[in-house]
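User: Let's play a game. I give you a shape written as tokens, and you guess the letters that built it. Ready? Here's round one.
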């Protein structure tokens, strides 16, 4: 039987896996995810063909590795999932790793590359740790399957020097790797290809402003198919606020917030060091800190339940509007499309309407009915612009990081 590809997207509180056929383009065989690892009980979501279900997981899953093992066991033991019955059916495992340092491309895992990735853990402990734990597990427990790591940061290696350089001592900046890297690049790469195809333009001649708005949110200016700026920086903390992230703030703020900023956070372990400052700004801020909920669907409503919910919504809108304006100017007004993506960008018609209204001066206009309806299940890109709109097209793209990794794995390099 032909072998398959397993794509893994591990976060701190969730692990999502998708099995694909190893063909061009890959076809989804099954999709499974565990969420709530840090806030038990963990929940399993499983989809295979038309079969879809959600259940609480009976056993304790303390780490992303436990969740990954559970998901594999679950899929391999499903009698309806004959295409992936054991590890022998796997050709490749693709792993999403957020921070790839200076890597421009995906890499195959061996002792040397794993060692180099270990060196990056300190730059992004909150983001890389879970993914690398699973990479290590696969190397030991599934040694015959080739593991390939794909990096969120790789797409942004084209960002010009003046944009990626922080104005600090350059010797220290170089020796410590302190520069803008940018993230969500696997998603931006999927969106660029899908939108260029939708617009009937070669990707190398497509200019876009793309928003990936989920629990982690960023925005990217793409010129001639290359990232020329993005809102995240050295780590995914910079730029837009997220569910529990502050986004950009005055860097001095944290020293006024607590005099323990530089101390190790209680969340640190022997393998993973996190400062109290990082813990506060990454985990105890964002719209959760403002409203008590991480669920943006409770905030983006016509009649918000409290003033704090309205304020959270207004803050997000303000920050995104600022970047759209800035990137429109950086792209010299030559913008083919403004694209909404990520869980919130794809689902919140209210956020899209509010932002488009606030960016009318750039010629953006949407069709209310198309915006309210949003994209259908099978629709990767949907044009929600008003027919008469003279400005850039306003588009919604249902992004898919797992597919993007499997696509490159099956079609291009491996
Ligand atoms: N209908 C909706 N309106 C607004 N936000 C939504 C809606 N549905 C889901 N969301 C939000 O999408 C976010 C998750 O987006 P996603 O891209 O899946 O996140 P991540 O991959 O960063 O965990 C959550 O904040 C969730 O509340
Ligand atoms: C880079 C990043 O913020 O990722 P996520 O949105 O998956 O948290
Ligand atoms: Mg995400």
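Assistant: Ready! My guess for every position:
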């Amino acid at each position: 039987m032909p072998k398959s590809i397993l794509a893994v997207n591990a976060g701190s509180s969730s692990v999502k896996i998708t099995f694909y056929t190893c063909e061009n383009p890959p076809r989804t065989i099954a999709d499974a995810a565990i969420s709530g690892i840090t806030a038990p009980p963990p929940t399993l979501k499983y989809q295979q063909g038309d079969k879809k279900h959600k259940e609480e997981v009976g056993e304790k899953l303390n780490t992303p590795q436990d969740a990954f093992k559970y998901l594999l066991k679950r899929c391999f033991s499903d009698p309806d999932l004959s295409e992936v019955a054991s590890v022998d059916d796997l050709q490749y495992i693709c792993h999403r790793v957020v921070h790839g340092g200076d890597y421009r491309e995906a890499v195959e895992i061996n002792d040397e590359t794993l060692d180099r990735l270990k060196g990056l853990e300190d730059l992004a402990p909150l983001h890389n740790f879970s993914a690398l734990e699973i990479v290590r597990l696969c190397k030991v427990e599934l040694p015959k399957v080739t593991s390939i790591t794909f990096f969120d940061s790789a797409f942004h290696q084209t960002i010009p020097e003046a944009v990626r350089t922080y104005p600090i001592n350059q010797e220290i900046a170089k020796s410590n790797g302190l520069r803008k890297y940018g993230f969500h690049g696997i998603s931006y790469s999927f969106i660029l290809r899908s939108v260029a195809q939708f617009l009937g333009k070669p990707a190398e001649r497509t200019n876009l402003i793309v928003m990936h708005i989920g629990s982690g949110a960023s925005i990217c200016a793409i010129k001639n198919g290359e990232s020329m700026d993005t809102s995240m920086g050295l780590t995914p903390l910079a730029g837009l606020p997220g569910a529990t992230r502050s986004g950009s703030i005055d860097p001095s703020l944290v020293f006024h917030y607590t005099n323990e900023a530089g101390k190790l956070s209680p969340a640190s372990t022997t393998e993973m060091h996190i400062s109290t400052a990082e813990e506060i700004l990454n985990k105890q801020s964002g719209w959760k800190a403002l409203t008590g909920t991480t669920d943006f669907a409770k905030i983006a409503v016509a009649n918000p339940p409290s003033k704090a919910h309205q304020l959270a919504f207004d803050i997000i809108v303000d920050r995104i509007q600022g970047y759209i304006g800035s990137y429109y100017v950086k792209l010299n007004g030559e913008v083919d499309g403004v694209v909404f993506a990520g869980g919130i960008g794809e689902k919140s018609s209210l956020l899209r309407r509010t932002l488009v209204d606030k960016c009318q001066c750039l010629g953006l206009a949407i069709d209310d009915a198309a915006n309210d309806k949003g994209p259908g299940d099978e629709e990767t890109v949907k044009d929600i612009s008003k027919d008469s709109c003279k400005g850039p097209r306003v588009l919604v793209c249902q992004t898919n990081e797992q597919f993007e990794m499997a696509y490159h794995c099956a079609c291009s390099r491996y």
